[in-house]
Amino acid sequence: MPIAGQIADTLDRPEHAFLTRSSGDQTIDADLQYLRELPWADTSIGPISTWSRELLVLINLAMLSPQPQLFLLGPDSIIIYNTAYGRLLYDHHPLYQGRPIALNEALISNAPAIDRIVDRATTRVRPANENHVTFFFSDSGRLRETFLSATMVKLPEPLQGFHATTYDTTAAALQLRRRESLKAILDSCALAKDMPGFWDSILQGIRIEDGDISFAMLYRADLLEKFDPEADCSRNVVDHQGFTLHGVVGSEDSGHSQHLNMSSPEPYVGCMREAVRTGQPLLVSVKDGTMPESWGRQSRQRCYGDDSLEAVIIPSSDSPESEVYAVLVLGIPPRRPYDEDYASWIYSIHQLFANAVTTFRLAEARSFDTQLVVRRAEALRTRQLLQAQLLMKQREAELQAEKLNEAIEAKRQQENFIDMTSHEIRNPLSAVILSADSVTQTLSQIQDLIKASVTKNASIDPHSLTELLDDIAESVDTISSCSMHQKRISDDILSLSKLNSGLVEISPSAFSLSSFMNRVCETFNNETSRADINFTAMQDSSVRLYNVDWIQADSGRIMQIMTNLISNAIKFTAGVKGEKSITIRVGASQTKDIAIFQDLIMTKPFQVIDDKTKASNEDIYLWFEVADTGCGMDGKERSKMFQRFSQASPKTYNEYGGSGLGLFISLKLVSLQGGVIGFTSQTGRGTNFAFSVRALREKSPDLASKQAMSILPDRGAVEANTLSVLLVEDNRTNQAVLSAQLRRHGYTVYTADNGQEAFDFLQSSRHWITSGQDSKLPHADVICMDIEMPIVDGIACTRMIRQAQQDGDITNHIPIIAVTANARLEQLHSVIEAGMDDAISKPFRVNDLKAVIDGVLRRA
């Protein structure tokens, strides 16, 4: 282990960010800290900085998963597991993290099962499964029996190792085992003809199943003969002063009393008296002295051979008013706790024991009791009640099995999603690498042309040069397209995580509907042009009818839905023959019943909007339609729309790719905004999607406001070549690329590697009060600030700048824009609270950053 506070490796790549930034869960953050501080350089898989991006993405997803997951990496099967799996390890966590599996004692005992599942994962195409594998983990120094089911897949090349998703199936396995134990007891007792035979039968039933009863002792109450003058004969009555041992299940050589005097001061005898008095089971233990240690030694031939430390005393009656004819002592398995489920199972045994004894006792008392018919009916009702209880428990077991199957199906879908996500990340990444190689090769050819022209003193062939430049443009276009595809996949995963955690908030703001539609068109014009698709946007006449121009709604969430629908339309239209067109429309309605939805297949919203809310005159429903002439869908494919991790058919993924999340996310976002979504599609004729959102009409800015605005200096009209930008970025590659891009757009760019260098720059600039506004000194009209940086991070640096501003050391307000890979809304809010003016999340295009710069300078 490294020294506390020592970072074991340099984690400066973007994909390392999840190891250092907060996940929102303190336990996960502690595990991530432990993970990154391990001496990975001493292991066969090497330091974290050498791990592939794909592996880091999978580890990031696993650490956030609520399901226990682990990786076996490298030739030594080094273990990496998530927080959920760590909870199963009890005392062994976090010591097993980063160690070869051969050194982890709690897993060595299950080496055969692990070897089987690894072998199957290696030799089979489909994931390998192992169900209800028994593990023993130390919990506060005491072994705990745990059942796990696991699915393991071999990681794709070049990753070396395996990824396993496990499920704690202890509850289901114990329920199955206890149901079998109860059945064995019932079957054995059903063979008994009388009460003496019943005593042997119940012990025999307990003896059959070895798992949940570590030992058993049956004590029968002493009987006294009493003459009944009415029946003119004697009968046996219970003498509660003494109990005699009838039989034992367990080690016969362990010490136990053959006869118990119920007036004895022994603590366990006192517990037996209490159980007899109340007619209820009573827990005794070695720890509090109510159970003799000699009882626990009887379990050495059962339940893994440990000495039992607890037992339950069960009387043959379930009420204080009834006679107790026997007491059954059941040892609790040493490696299972006496929890609520075990207590419920003991309750079933108690009812079986008490009802059976009552039934036999009633049969024996037939000649003495004139109410035999009534008592027989009571016994029958008791049996019926027991049967009903058993049926209820059986139904509970079936429901548990159904839940387990649902969990397995959810796990399967998650695995498919991971496979698809990995494919969707790797495919465009491969294209990016190949395109970058193509650019390098083409530039080399251009250099050769130039050298040849210089050597031969001849002009360069324009045709050859044009072809090479076209190749570079095509490769750069491919890189841009693939990068945007990867960004959409990342956005889908982030959106799904927020939706599942209930972190998505709808934030309405005023915006122009016309400007919004123009922005949609600008976003997709290039992409549709490249695919030779006729892309058209129009407003329905209802927009003018209801005088809808400026509205109050969440334009970002609406844009996210439109992006998902239009991206799908482009994907499924680009490859068709003949006419290729995509048309988007926007309209308005004063009610939820909109004509455009009449012929569509509608989906059920995820949440019910309260229609009792008093509507105002400003309420409006906006609807949007995306219609394409793509390949369309058949009936089977239409039935799978809007399901999470699901696409229309295997052909859809194989031919078009995608994560299977876009429509599912769109449905949730529409529901959160009080709307509905539907679609219609026919094979070969295209697809139409339409959705609505609830909004408020907003008054457009009046003439006076516009005139007042025009009086103010328009900072957005300032040419870029008159502006200076201080770029604070610790990643040298990102710094160099972004600096070059900004300079191409006319900005003067200064750079700093961290927050401290940025603050030092300001102290030596004309912004610092002691400089005297020397025009020869550098200045910054705006600061682009990264967040995660060494020495002084972006938030700390911002606070230093704002404090210096407040103290008067900095003479003016310098706008600061957060340029960060943190994309969650709460992370972006935190930078604004720290004193920054705006934020933009990576990845982005330089025009996007330029628009943000113009915006903050306009507001400055």
From TrEMBL:
Which InterPro entries does the entry mention?
A: 2C_system_His_kinase, CheY-like_superfamily, HATPase_C_sf, HATPase_dom, His_kinase_dom, HisK_dim/P_dom, HisK_dim/P_sf, Sig_transdc_His_kin-like_C
This entry's Gene Ontology molecular function terms read: phosphorelay sensor kinase activity
Residues forming the Response regulatory domain are 724-857
**Which ranges of the sequence are coiled-coil?**
387-414
The residue ranges of the Histidine kinase domain are 420-697
Q: Which residues carry this modification: 4-aspartylphosphate?
A: D786
- Which PANTHER family does the entry mention? HISTIDINE KINASE G2 (PTHR43719:SF60), TWO-COMPONENT HISTIDINE KINASE (PTHR43719)
Q: What is this protein called?
A: Histidine kinase
Q: Which organism is it from?
A: Aureobasidium subglaciale (strain EXF-2481) (Aureobasidium pullulans var. subglaciale)
